[in-house]
Amino acid sequence: RQRWRADGRALRKLPVHVGLVVTEEEPSYADMASLVVWCMAVGISYVSVYDHNGIFKRNNSRLMDEILKQQQELIGLDCSKYTVEFANQDKTGQVLNCQSTLKVLSPEDGKADIVKAAQNFCQLVAQQQRTHTDLDVNVLDNLLSSTNGFPDPDLVLKFGPVDSTLGFLPWHIRLTEIISLPSHLNISYEEFLSALHHYAACEQRWGK
């Protein structure tokens, strides 16, 4: 555990929010749980898990069980100290020590959430609570429910051969660094850490 925390501190730049995007057809709960726990161990505050078929979200209890199991096995954390949120659901599992928050997302939390936010804004205009000139980036951000309380991702780790994020938070990744890895299956900690080093070395020009 101390080694992982030291690895995080040694990085010149550590992402605050990491998106783990699986484009493969057969997602692995054990491998995804390892990635989530490694994110927690190095000190990443927010983690989003996404697959384009919504398998992880539909089976979030199975993923959560695997994460809690690996928390104990890999870093010896007390399960009572970790916060988990499932986007667009009222159920929040309070499990907190690691100061990390997880959201499990599916395609409905991407474009569909933007459509819903636009509809909500139009209703506010119709009710004269807003005017059309009020619409800006911050207002739309506040209307999006799937990432409520989450900063935009600094880094997306995309797993699989598909050269696309397949609908992962299209509004939020305008300035996100995206690193592609061949597969999340049997991924090693060294591969994960190498991706973080790659991110830390990137010079972000913010469109300049």
From TrEMBL:
Membrane topology annotation: Multi-pass membrane protein
First-tier enzyme category under EC: transferase
Transmembrane segments: none
GO molecular function term, any single one: ditrans,polycis-polyprenyl diphosphate synthase [(2E,6E)-farnesyl diphosphate specific] activity
GO cellular component, as recorded: dehydrodolichyl diphosphate synthase complex; endoplasmic reticulum membrane
Keywords annotated in UniProt: Angiogenesis, Developmental protein, Differentiation, Endoplasmic reticulum, Glycoprotein, Lipid metabolism, Magnesium, Membrane, Receptor, Transferase, Transmembrane, Transmembrane helix
Pathway recorded for this protein: Lipid metabolism; Protein modification; protein glycosylation
Enzyme Commission number: 2.5.1.87
Cofactor: Mg(2+)
Pfam families hit by this protein: Prenyltransf (PF01255)
Catalyzed reactions: n isopentenyl diphosphate + (2E,6E)-farnesyl diphosphate = a di-trans,poly-cis-polyprenyl diphosphate + n diphosphate
Main location: endoplasmic reticulum
Subcellular location: Endoplasmic reticulum membrane
An example Gene Ontology biological process: lipid metabolic process
Subunit structure: The active dehydrodolichyl diphosphate synthase complex is a heterotetramer composed of a dimer of heterodimer of DHDDS and NUS1. Interacts with NPC2.
Function description: With DHDDS, forms the dehydrodolichyl diphosphate synthase (DDS) complex, an essential component of the dolichol monophosphate (Dol-P) biosynthetic machinery. Both subunits contribute to enzymatic activity, i.e. condensation of multiple copies of isopentenyl pyrophosphate (IPP) to farnesyl pyrophosphate (FPP) to produce dehydrodolichyl diphosphate (Dedol-PP), a precursor of dolichol phosphate which is utilized as a sugar carrier in protein glycosylation in the endoplasmic reticulum (ER). Synthesizes long-chain polyprenols, mostly of C95 and C100 chain length.
Family: Belongs to the UPP synthase family.
Protein name from the UniProt record: Dehydrodolichyl diphosphate synthase complex subunit NUS1
